[in-house]
Structure formats: C-alpha cells, structure tokens
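Re: weekly structure request thread

Next one in the queue (359 aa):
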Amino acid sequence: MPDKEGGLLPQTENIECPLCLGEGMLKRTEVLDRLGVKDFARVAQLSAEEAFRLLSKRHTNDHQTAWARFETELTKRTAEIEQRHRDELRTVSGRIRELESAARVAEELHALDVQLGHADSEAKLLAAQSQNADLSRRVEDCLREVSQLRERNQQLEAEMSKVARVGKLEEVSFADEARTWAGVCVSEKLPRNGDFILAYRDPSGAPLEPRIIVDNKDKATITEGDIRKLIRDAKERRSAVGIIVAREESQLRQVDRERRWGQEDGVWVLRSTRRWLPRDLEVLKPVFERMRTEGPDFLQKNSALAEEVRRTFVDLDEVERELGKASKATSGELSNMSGERTISLCTCRPSYPSRASRE
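Done, posted below.
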C-alpha cells in the first residue's frame, strides 16, 4: 500500500477488515483467500527467500567443497613435505654418522701419529745420545792421541835441537846462497826498493828478463803491508815479478800458504821461504821463458795456466810436508834400532832388535 508520500508501506501480517471496519482483525492471508486473490508479494518473498536459501546452500556446499579440496591438497602437500623432510633428515643423519665416523678415524690417526712421533723422537734421541757418547769417546781418544803426539813432538824437537847444535853449519847470506844456484845471477844489496834483483842468465852470463825483485823478511809473521811494499818496489824497478822470502814456513800466514803465486795490482807476487825458493824458481822457469817471448802480460791472458801454477805450489808444499813427516818417522825408527844395537853391544852379548820393535 502507498503511503502519504507516495512510497510503499511495509507489508504487515494483519490488516483491517473492510467488512467490519476494523472492529475485528483478520490475517492478511485469510482476507486474500476469502477474496480469491493470491499474495504475490508473499509468494515473491518466499520465492526469493527460497532462492537465497538455495543459493546460500549451494554457496555453502561450494565453500565446503573448496575447503575440503584445500584441506585434501594441504594434507597431501603436508605429507609430501613431511616425507621430504624425513628423507632429508635421514640423509643428514647418515651424513652426520659418516662425519662422526670420519672424526673418530681422524682422532685415532692423530693419536697414532702422535704415538709414532713420540716413538720416532725417542729413537732419534737415543740415536743422538749414542752418537754423542761415541763422539765423546772419540774426542777423548783424540785428546789422548794429541797429548801423546805433543809429548813425542817435544821429544823430537829436543833431539833435533841437540843435532842442530852439534852439526849446524854457519849460516850463509841469501846472496851467497843464491849465487850457488845454477843459471841464476843476483845483484848486490840494493840501497832501497827491495833487497836484491834476481834473474836467470843466458849462456854468455848476461841477465835475462824478467828481472825479479827479492825482499827478505825475518819476522814473526809476514803482513799485508810487506806485500804492498814489495808491489811498490817492483813498480819502482819496473819489474813484473816480485818475491817475498821468509826464513821459516811458520812466518807465512795461512792466506800466503794457500795463495803463494798470484797477481796483485799488476805485479806477479811469489810468497816463498829460503828452503822453498830454489824449487819454486825451477817451477816458474818455463813461465819466465814464455814471459820473455810473449810479453809480461802472458799470464794475464792465460788465467788457467796461472791458476794451475798456484795449485802446483800448494801440491808441492803438501808433498814436501808428507815427505818430511815420513823422514822424521824413519829417522826415529833408525834411532831406536841404533839404541837397541848399542845396548846389546854394551852387554857383550850378540842380540838384535825384538820383533815388536821391528814392527
């Protein structure tokens, strides 16, 4: 029914009866039934409600179906994830067990290495101790032998000094001794720049090149200053060769004995002694001849030959030392044998050295 403003009034369940003018109250459906009119609004409302109910039911069913599918998919995915995690967990657990096993093996190997290291160290320590003990014994033996050799050397020196005092000839000067050497001429004593000029002679007696400056030294030790002075004297005399002559071998330094022949500042220097000089001149004689023919710088051009000459001097000195030792040993043995023969003669009984003394 329209209201005063032209709108529709809401439908109500009860309406005024047109027959009784509102004195009695009939339901709207009863009135419409008596008038033979259907309640289309009610039918429409009920149809709409039914449609909404069906739509809601369908929506609810769809919603439940969707949730069911979601829950099924979720359950499936959850099961797959759980299975994957269980597989990964089993893999990780297996890897952990492998790592733990490897760690145990590594610890055992480390312990074994430590034990082997200790055993090796102990073995090395025992070997070192044994070697030290052997070295100590060898050192003691060497010291004992050195002491014995020192005593024997003192005895030999005493014997040699006795022989020297008895049979030593008067010492001659260097110049007188050098004039006795075959084919060598020596100048008079020089006032400066050396002591003597020494040279080989030709068949007519004339001195040949090179003229050699000789400087005699009789002091505790030859110094580097003596070598420099000899080089200066050789340059002043315009000589390519200089010789410094010591009285004894002990007066030469170790460096002098190791390098007796060599070039220094353009001058060839020979370090020698009174006893070595004749032999050294015989060794250098072919070198001096080639210097006369090929020039003073012959050895500078042939360094290999110069080094060979230097090594020759060292080898000759070593051979002479060994021969001296052998000669002393032979002399000592002969002295012992002579002493035993003298004792046997004094007892007036024929006797000979014992087998032990002969050996």
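The chain is about 65% helix and 10% strand. The longest strand covers residues 267-273.
Next request, please.
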